[in-house]
Helix-turn-helix transcriptional regulator
Amino acid sequence: MTSDDLPIGRRVASWRVRRSMTQQMLADRLHRSKSWVDKIERGARTLDRYSVIQELAHVLRVDPEVLLGQPPSTPAGTPDGVDDIRAALARYDIPRAPHQPSDELRRQVGHAWLTYQHAHYGQLVRVVPGLLDAAQGARSAELLVQAYRITSSLLVKLGEANLGWLAADRAMTAAGDDPLLAAAATISVGQALRAQDRDRLALAALLPAADRVLPPPTQSGDHEVSGALGDQSARKPHDHGVEGEGDHRGRAVGGTLLVQAALAAAGCGEHRRADELTDRAAGVAASLRGYDDTHRTGFGPVAVEVARVLVAVRRGDADEALQRHLAVVRREGWRRLPAEYRGAYLVDVARAYLQMGDLRGAARALVDADNVAPAEVRCRPLARTVIVDVARVQPAPAGVARLATLVGLTR
């Protein structure tokens, strides 16, 4: 058993011995009884208040995370550097001489996507300004769209949705006449609009884009699969923009557009339409047989089930949301979703628990989100509001009280 696997009482005892303290000495410094210390160390008494854990850590001269068996804290709060991204977006003095995209630039874009998907937002904030400059100078539509999409996604995460919309709009412009690049850019447009509570505008952008890159839904109930396997010659080459690319890249982008449109519909109160769109997205996901996620969508059957949970949350059906959630996290593909995706989703699940009045369930979801992607909880303004609501219960659950302290919400 490693030190991280030890019960917290055993860690207290271990650090007490390392500090050459008896149980009585530790009790005296805590202004508690020796019996209390003994029960803590034996596990007969539960340490469920973060303030007490902090007090113990102070006396034992260790970080609270050490007693909790957790890694050192990720810095909380919005990372510095957003102004540098704003300045990069405001630069128009782009080199006129065209440059061929280099393998190095492609590698940088790929690394930036991985950094985003692992929710290392502080690191990404520092990378994005230089990435934008390089991509603008390269004059490659594909790389420029990707750089703007990364920028937009990051800014939305950090509560800068207006600036995120600007980056998404730049991605649309850079896409030009390429239908698949334009569809990928529309994903970012929809996310930025939804983050501003402009769900109807998001829906108006997302749904036509999905229709342009996907076969039309059939009336048979198999919304996408039958269309995908039907007579391709019956469709004109320009009908859907990606004829000849009926491959999985186009379907993954189209399926993601449907998922985003479903969430926008739910945000508008159009719950039946939201369910229809998720059903259609499920058909698209079922037609995938493995693909290279070139456009970093994370789309697939599990992503659709995640969307069903979020749609239920948005219509206030917490019971359905939580039932679906318990099934989602048991699915084989759950852990293959990017950490950013899972962390953001778990924050939404915490909101569902709050709707049910289950504060401890909400606390568990927040702690799980923090374990998966700490920056999702500690850097995002949205997560702070959930932490505040959960931390109001007294005594606050230890994990959430710790998060509240880390993000500066304690008095």
